[in-house]
């Protein structure tokens, strides 16, 4: 299936298990792959018939900054739900949310979660 992707979208937000994490905030990285049928847009060359990655990044930013959650799993699901709402042609989504330097006692680049969802399939 065809897809539009966004890699390395960085958004500062206030999420985390501890009160300190939620108060200080941090940068979260979002990598998304949005699957849909591109056959029509490949013929028409019309932005209105695709998933506009600029609009998608705005949807992700709003989802990430309009609420506070404890777990990345919940944040990924909120982002996914909002993308399905914003783009009726979206059939399948893969959402990865990461924190940089998440483990204080160890050197790590990042840690996070990845979810995949299909429109109309209950979780």
Could you describe the 3D structure shown?
It contains four helices and four strands; from the N terminus they run E-H-E-H-H-H-E-E. With 123 residues, it is α+β, with helices and mostly antiparallel strands. It has a four-stranded antiparallel β-sheet. The longest helix has 15 residues, at 72-86.
Brief account:
The protein is α+β, with helices and mostly antiparallel strands and 123 residues long.
What attributes characterize this protein structure?
123 residues; alpha+beta; four-stranded antiparallel beta sheet; 4 helices; 33% helix
Q: Topology, please?
A:
Blueprint: E1 3-13, H1 19-24, E2 26-35, H2 39-44, H3 53-65, H4 72-86, E3 92-100, E4 110-118
Antiparallel strand pairs: 1-2, 2-3, 3-4
Helix pairs in contact: 3-4
Shape: elongated
Mean pLDDT: 95
Number of H/I helices: 4
Distance between the termini: 21 Å
Into which percent range does the helicity of residues fall? 25-40%
Question: Biggest sheet, open or closed, and with what strands and sense?
Answer: 4 strands, antiparallel
Helix/strand-derived category reads: alpha+beta
How large is the radius of gyration? 15 Å
- Unreliable sequence segments: none
According to DSSP, the number of beta strands is 4
Which sequence of strands runs across the widest sheet? 1-2-3-4
As a percent range, the share of strand residues is 25-35%
Order of helical and strand elements:
EHEHHHEE
């Amino acid at each position: 299936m065809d897809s539009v992707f966004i890699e390395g979208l960085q958004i500062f937000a206030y999420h985390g298990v501890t009160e300190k994490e939620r108060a200080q905030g941090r940068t979260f990285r979002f990598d998304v792959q949005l699957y849909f049928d591109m056959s029509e847009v490949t013929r028409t060359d019309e932005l209105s018939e695709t998933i506009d990655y600029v609009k998608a990044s705005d949807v992700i930013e709003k989802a990430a900054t309009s609420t506070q959650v404890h777990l990345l799993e919940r944040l990924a699901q909120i982002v996914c739900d909002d993308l399905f709402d914003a783009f009726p042609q979206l059939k399948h989504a893969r959402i990865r949310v990461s924190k940089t330097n998440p483990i204080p006692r160890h050197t790590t680049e990042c840690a996070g979660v990845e979810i995949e969802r299909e429109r109309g399939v209950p979780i």
